[in-house]
Amino acid sequence: MTIGLFWSRYELELHEKNLREIDAKYTFLIHYEMWNWLIAKIPEKVQIQILRGHNHGEGSWSCRQWVEHMLDWLKENKPADIYNAVLDKIAIVRSQPVEEAERHAARTLSDDELAEMQAAGYFKSVPPRTRNE
Fold first, then answer.
1. Residue 106: count of CB within 10 angstroms of its CB
2. What is the pLDDT of residues 76-96, one digit of tens each?
3. Which of 62, 82, 92, 123 could lock onto 78 through a cystine, CB 3.0 to 4.6 A?
4. Where are the domains of the chain?
């Protein structure tokens, strides 16, 4: 899977937290499943322009801060109905249980990856796969 600048940066943030590899992978998969639709709404060229000057050093932004600035960009550059629809969808995504994202993210995993995640205590709401599926 080719990922954009935002998701590459998010992987770095997870790495900086010194999580176990399996925990970082799970966190990435779930957040990607939940939020990629939003990141995809902002062209990567615009994402880079928004981030300019805040990529390194003391004034660098976390991915969360970057998303807030992307939302500001949407508000300033898209019609109000589009911006409001995005806010509505954010509220819907936040209200859904993590199991919903797990069911969708599980589809992207191989049988072995899913089994590894389940052995680590993740994807409990997803039935284990058999080799015949």
1. 20
2. 999 999 999 999 999 999 999
3. 82
4. 5-119
